[in-house]
Specification:
The structure holds two protein chains of two kinds.
Chain A: H1 2-14, H2 16-41, H3 49-54, H4 57-78, H5 81-87, H6 92-124, H7 137-144, H8 151-172, H9 175-182, H10 185-205, H11 210-217, H12 223-226, H13 234-259
Helix pairs in contact in A: 1-6, 2-4, 2-6, 4-6, 4-9, 4-10, 6-7, 6-8, 6-13, 8-13, 9-10, 9-13
Chain B: E1 4-15, E2 18-24, E3 27-29, E4 33-37, H1 44-52, E5 59-64, H2 70-76, E6 80-83, H3 95-106, H4 112-121, H5 136-148, E7 154-158, H6 166-183, E8 186-190, H7 194-200, E9 203-208, E10 211-217, H8 218-224, E11 228-233, H9 236-245, E12 252-254, E13 260-262, H10 269-278, E14 283-289, H11 293-300
Parallel strand pairs in B: 4-8, 4-9, 6-7, 7-8
Antiparallel strand pairs in B: 1-2, 1-3, 1-5, 9-10, 11-13, 11-14, 12-13
Helix pairs in contact in B: 4-5
The chains are: A mainly alpha, B alpha/beta.
Chain lengths: 265, 307
């Protein structure tokens, strides 16, 4: 399995497309931070927050993350890397795990610009605000910018950002079974993006429904998991990480159940 | 443990109502090149996919190096090298990077094998060229190089000479022979290019509509395709009598179309012709012929050729 993971990471590092996606993510992170800085100064109309959301980590991760998942998994069906792995005796569960690890690493690289921009923004001591569209890293920036922080709080913010990355990886882990079943990147991106919009709508309305709220709180798609700041307790963070890890494991188990007996065309 | 590296026992594969393979039993030994011959849709690729673990049999079993069962087979597949349908590679990587990727996947520590294989398949001078820019022949060569990583003991190649230029065909033929002889590798190779396959294979497996029609060695094929005098006449029964009494041979065969194939007296055409003529038999065809693998294959399928 380690051989497969090493090989997948090697392939990832050689991919020009992945580098382009990370560059897009970096540019989007910069744009969203600049907008978040200009909005409280009154230099940008607050109605521009819709555009701000376009460049947010939540939105970009949904799109770029699904594209990367499609490239890493569906691409390997197209170029027969998965065929070669199976015919040379690799176990199917090892193939699934290696793809999941490669996807997780790619997502970390994709989210790194947002983590850096958020840390840099908080370090300036200036006020950043994106209003109600702030989720994930932008929420951290909105909630904690303009405050002087102690060392312990900096450590906690690092832990929050790490937790957010895990939440995003858990959300995107849905793309693993999708990619293994559908084998076409375009379907993976379309379905995942549609699903994420649906989840956002339902999660928004879940406040009025205790059942819906409970369901969402047990998945990484719940708003609560993406709205973390210094006020979030260590227990809440641990719970979020636990839910995310269980969700990832569930997605991989679903993938294995279907893939272990599937014929590779 | 027997000496067969690959065995299938009554292997069948159905896709819904369609039977792609029916009760296929084959045995492959090291040091032989097996030419898998069949029309499109005959089941060649299905058989190869089952051996490679890309599909699962509906019935029957596979034995690799004397082992069968799901996990032992997965383990033994590490000793296989495959190129099925079209070669698989990452298009944005160079040939060497592709070999490195597959070497890492297989856990082969020897980095030098990358250059050795590139040299072996004639891709050593493609240093910076991405695989997506390769010609069809170069892609085939890369596919073969990938299949050869990890020094497999069994090589499964589906149409490996597709797209190769004449020189490339000869190079690949020589390479396969060399691998077979020096490493005692068992090679299962499918091709529609039967004249080429005839020059490469040591054994033949003829498959038609999912069933094995015949398995034979090169010697058996040569024997069956051997040269003969083809005689067509108005009285075949009388002709056979003449062959036996006048020429003293039983080495002939009456074909379903009532022509007679005489495998003796190939260097005594005049004597044969005179003997037939003297008995008042009217001959309408008198040719020295020899079958090709192509004709033999067609005859096996019940076509116009005779076998």
């Amino acid at each position: 399995m380690l051989n497969l993971i090493r090989a997948d990471l090697f392939k990832l590092m050689k991919s020009q497309a992945v580098k382009v996606l990370i560059a897009i993510s970096a540019a989007s992170a910069m744009i969203s931070a600049v907008m978040a800085y200009l909005i409280p100064l009154g230099k940008i109309d607050t109605r521009m927050t819709g555009i701000e959301f376009m460049f947010s980590d939540m939105n970009m991760t949904c799109i770029l993350g699904a594209v990367i998942a499609g490239m890493i998994i569906c691409g390997d069906f197209e170029n027969k890397t998965i065929h070669n792995a199976i015919s040379s005796g690799s176990r199917r569960y090892a193939i699934i795990i290696s793809k999941a690890v490669a996807l997780a690493v790619a997502l970390m690289l994709l989210l790194l610009p947002y983590a850096i921009v958020t840390a840099a923004g908080l370090g300036t001591g200036d006020k950043f605000d994106v209003g109600s569209v702030g989720i994930g890293f932008l929420h951290v920036l909105t909630a904690e910018s303009g405050n002087v922080m102690e060392i312990a709080e900096i450590g906690k913010l690092a832990a929050i950002m790490l937790t957010l990355i895990i939440v995003y990886i858990a959300q995107l882990s849905l793309c693993v079974p999708l990619a293994f079943f559908l084998k076409k990147p375009v379907f993976v991106v379309a379905i995942y993006y549609g699903f994420s919009i649906l989840c956002a709508q339902l999660a928004g309305g879940s406040e009025s429904s205790s059942v819906l709220s409970r369901i969402f709180s047990l998945t990484p798609y719940g708003n609560k998991h993406a709205l973390m700041a210094l006020e979030t307790t260590a227990g809440d963070m641990a719970r979020t990480i636990g839910i995310s890890v269980i969700f990832i494991a569930f997605m991989l188990a679903v993938t294995f159940t279907a893939f272990r007996k599937s014929e590779i065309k | 443990m027997n000496s067969y590296v690959v065995q299938t026992h009554h292997l069948s594969k159905n896709y819904g109502d369609y039977t792609a393979l029916r009760q296929v039993s084959i045995r492959l030994k090291g040091g032989h090149i097996y030419g898998l011959i069949g029309q499109n849709g005959a089941g060649k690729t299905t058989l190869m996919r089952l051996l490679a673990g890309l599909a699962f049999p509906t019935e029957g079993s596979i034995e690799l190096f004397g082992h069968s069962g799901k996990y032992p087979l997965q383990e033994e597949r590490k000793r296989l090298g495959c190129m099925i349908e079209h070669p698989g590679f990452v298009p944005y990587m160079t040939a060497k990077q592709n070999l490195k990727l597959h070497r890492m996947m297989r856990g082969v520590p020897n980095e030098e094998i990358e250059d050795e294989l590139l040299e072996l398949v004639g891709l050593a001078d493609t240093v910076r060229k991405k695989a997506r820019d390769f010609s069809l022949g170069m892609k085939q060569r890369l596919g073969i190089a990938i299949a050869l990583l990890g020094s497999p003991e069994v090589l499964i190649l589906d149409e490996p000479i597709n797209g190769l230029d004449p020189l490339g065909v000869i190079e690949i033929r020589n390479l396969l022979r060399q691998l077979c002889e020096e490493r005692q590798m068992a090679i299962l190779i499918s091709s529609h290019n039967l004249p080429e396959l005839y020059q490469t294979a040591t054994n033949y497996i003829i498959i038609h509509k999912g069933e094995i029609k015949q398995t034979l060695t090169q010697e058996q094929l040569d024997e069956r395709c051997k040269h003969h005098i083809l005689i067509r006449c108005d009285q075949p029964e009388k002709l056979t009598s003449v062959l036996e009494t006048e020429l003293g041979t039983l080495n002939y065969k009456v074909m379903p179309d009532r022509t007679v194939k005489l495998y003796d007296c190939l260097d005594q055409l005049e004597r044969v012709a005179r003997a037939i003529h003297d008995k008042g038999i009217v001959v309408t065809k008198f040719n020295v012929e020899g079958e090709t693998l192509e004709n033999y294959f067609i005859s096996c399928l019940g076509g116009e050729g005779d076998a």
